Amino acid sequence: MPSHDVLIIGAGLAGQRAALAAAQAGVTVAIMSKVHPVRSHSVAAAGGINAAVSVTDDWRSHAYDTVKGSDFLGDQDAIEVMCSEAPAEVMHLEHIGVTFHRNDDGLLDLRAFGGASVKRTAYVADITGQAILHVLYEQLMKHSDTVDRYEEWFTTSLILDDEGTCTGCVARNIRTGDMEVFTAKNVILASGGAGQIWKPSTNALICTADGITQAYRAGVPLMDMEMIQYHPTTLLENGFLITEGARGEGAHLLNSEGERFMEKYAPNKMELASRDVVSRAEQTEINEGRGVGEDGAGIYLDITVVPKKRTLEALREIVNIGKDFAGVDITKEPILIRPGQHYIMGGVKTDVDGATPVPGLYAAGEVACVSVHGGNRLGANSLLDTLIFGRRSGEHAAERAKSMTMPTNDRTQLLKDEAEIKEIIGRPKTGRRVSEIKDELGTVMNRYVAVFRDEAGLQHAHEVVRRLKEEAKSAYIDDQGTVFNQDVLGAIELGYMLDAAECCVVAALERKESRGAQFRTDFPERNDDEWQKHINTSINGDDVPTIHYSPVTITQWQPEERKY
């Protein structure tokens, strides 16, 4: 039975940064992932990472922009931590080998991003996440003596002892089907977000709310789950991400009448208002009949106004995406886009060290809710979130590990999980397919828990999710083997997604106001008196999640009307 001081589940940027921090603190570390680490979803982060590295910038300005972007729902103590530690983190990344773009003076080049008052986004063309992920993986190789890697292992359960302390997990070796108990003094969840709950989504197929639901089932509250980010520029045909870097380089958004309609919605920031504002503006134009493309379902993103040489240098990946998936040369003609599901601001409730209310359990990255994003995340703050709180959780878990003995686990949870998998494989083919249920879930969530919401739509979505949870209990799979049985993993992932989806819907129903990414057409105004507070959801057996609240931490920026 493997045992480690710190066990990290998920090997994207948050997980790898946590692993490096814990290893450098001198403890034994394991990092586990259901895919090879460099295939983690962090690889898809394109535009860059925010940090006040310019001599004319200040971290307090970055923090204020983030607070404002959050629509004053973000916890300001956590935002101050993230923004004040950002410059050193970006310098650290460059020192270990991330080749950030430099300007003609040899200084770090910075690009504009939505909601930022100055240019403060460091970048590597439009492959910033990929560049950082590969450098961190190289660094991880240097610690191969103290960091064990379990690549292509799927976590089925967290293990809690009789006192409610997390002492490890049960996982399945995807290559062989073997199950194993992993014992750990501390477990750090870094397994990403929940984008596959929606269809379409910019998220990879692996983003199935695994860690969010594992923590929820272990008794950890989920916070801000109603806050779902729709990115303003996803490809109309399939939802692929077109980086915000395009607008940062100067691209325009145009409706069917050729208007730069953002003049009406955000006259000062135009296309570089915060993402929630731009997505709502686009959806309004589409809903009011000024969309373009088939059925008027899209908006033009015109990148031809950016000099071609600059586009080919700084936006080369979306040049390829345009050609390969839309048949469009973005240097010569506009491309059709629409708002698409991209990110979840909510997640596992943690403190600024990544610790959850369950002793021994941490969370960092998109799986977690610190909350530094509140009602709306600013572009290029997600990479920063993963690295700052990944490192802090790794350091904190390592220190905690030094003061305790290794816990012991028996095989009770393993036998339970093995029995569950055997039951899934043995189901008769009388129910629905897992893929059918997932498809219906994604379609309903994208219809009713999207840019605009109302009571009737959310109630309908909740009824559908409750029905799908029942149907999932008898959903069947085809593969009955043990080697790379993705079918059985898909059935388990469906359960994770349905639990998390219900928390999103229940929280959206509860928040009877419009703030950040949550726009209720039946409650169109922000209401600070009643709703400037976090909504938390906790497990309630098989029944509807319970709702409770926690205060928003305000340090120096009082709520004000948000204008761009």
Automatic annotation (TrEMBL):
Disulfide bond in keyword set: no
Biological-process GO terms, alphabetical: electron transport chain
Organism: Paraconexibacter algicola
Keywords: Electron transport, FAD, Flavoprotein, Membrane, Oxidoreductase, Transport
Residues given in the record as substrate binding sites: 231, 243, 342, 377
Protein name as annotated: succinate dehydrogenase
Cell location: Membrane
Domain FAD-dependent oxidoreductase 2 FAD-binding: 5-383
InterPro entries with a match to the protein in the record: FAD-dep_OxRdtase_2_FAD-bd (IPR003953), FAD/NAD-bd_sf (IPR036188), FRD_SDH_FAD_BS (IPR003952), Fum_R/Succ_DH_flav-like_C_sf (IPR037099), Fum_Rdtase/Succ_DH_flav-like_C (IPR015939), SdhA/FrdA/AprA (IPR030664), Succ_DH/fumarate_Rdtase_cat_sf (IPR027477), Succ_Dhase_FrdA_Gneg (IPR014006)
